[in-house]
């Protein structure tokens, strides 16, 4: 989907989620395909519904001076950063057609990133009690978070998802306590590999592993082709306008 302003992507997700919920309620249920939106956002900090505003360490005026915005949103989790060089994935899935287990769903989203990291010879893992994907301590003294997770579910239809740091400017995290965790660092693929990473290559690997883990056949649409498809999917142009 290219680069989308956060409020647009959030509104689009809500409409897509509602569309799938409506399709489930119809009699007989209407077959509507799942979607995985892959986007990049301009610099923005988002705080989940149960997050602590104290984990935003600067005011919104300071954020604006640095070209960033702040949005309080409806996903789980605490505060995180989205911006250029980061891959954000928003799966709109009906878990009734997979499994009705939020814990398993989050672990399988993490597995997508873990396998992608492994394809770059990086050992990534989970940490018990902390959602997200972490790089093993290795040459450093502590694990480093490379991907964050946060979702919302309505009638087992998902929205929000994951953010995966590829060539992200890690200095942006100085403005927050990332995910409310103060005793661990944040990292990126480029930081760990000590080079700029081809973001299209990473995207392709993420799609491949997502397909493997969720048993999905992927119809891949680029932005110009995706928007007319989504308009038809919604049958309502309001969110596009």
Account of the 3D structure:
The chain is α+β, with helices and mostly antiparallel strands. The chain has a single domain (6-234), classed as BirA Bifunctional Protein, domain 2. Helices cover 32% and strands 23% of the residues. The protein contains six helices and ten strands; from the N terminus they run αββαβββαβββββααα. The strands form two sheets. Strands 1, 5, 6, 7, 8, 9 and 10 form a seven-stranded mixed beta sheet that branches. Strands 3-2-4 form a three-stranded mixed beta sheet. Strand 7 and strand 8 (144-154) form a beta hairpin. The longest helix is centred in the N-terminal third of the chain and has 20 residues, at 6-25.
Which key features would you list for this structure?
alpha+beta, 241 residues, 6 helices, seven-stranded mixed sheet, 32% helix, BirA Bifunctional Protein, domain 2, globular, three-stranded mixed sheet
């Amino acid at each position: 989907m290219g680069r989308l302003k956060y409020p647009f992507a959030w509104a689009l997700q809500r409409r897509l989620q509602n569309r799938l919920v409506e399709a489930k309620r119809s009699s007989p249920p209407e077959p509507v395909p799942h979607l995985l939106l892959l986007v990049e956002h301009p610099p923005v900090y988002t705080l989940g519904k149960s997050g602590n505003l104290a984990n935003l360490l600067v005011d919104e005026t300071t954020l604006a001076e640095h070209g960033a915005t702040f949005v309080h949103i409806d996903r789980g989790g605490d505060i995180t950063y989205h911006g250029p060089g980061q891959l954000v994935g928003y799966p709109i899935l009906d878990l009734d057609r997979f499994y009705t287990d939020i814990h398993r769903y989050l672990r399988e989203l993490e597995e997508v990133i873990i396998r992608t990291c492994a394809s770059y010879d990086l050992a990534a893992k989970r940490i018990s009690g902390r959602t997200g994907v972490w790089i093993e301590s290795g040459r450093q003294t502590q694990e480093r978070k490379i991907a964050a997770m946060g979702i919302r579910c309505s009638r087992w239809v998902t929205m929000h998802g994951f953010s995966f740091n590829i060539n992200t400017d890690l200095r942006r995290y100085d403005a927050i306590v990332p995910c409310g965790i103060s005793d661990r660092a944040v990292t990126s693929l480029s930081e760990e590999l000590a080079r700029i990473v081809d973001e299209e290559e990473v995207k392709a690997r993420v799609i491949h592993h997502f397909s493997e883990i969720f048993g999905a056949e992927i119809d891949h649409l680029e932005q110009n082709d995706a928007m007319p498809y989504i308009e038809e999917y919604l049958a309502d142009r309001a969110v596009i306008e």
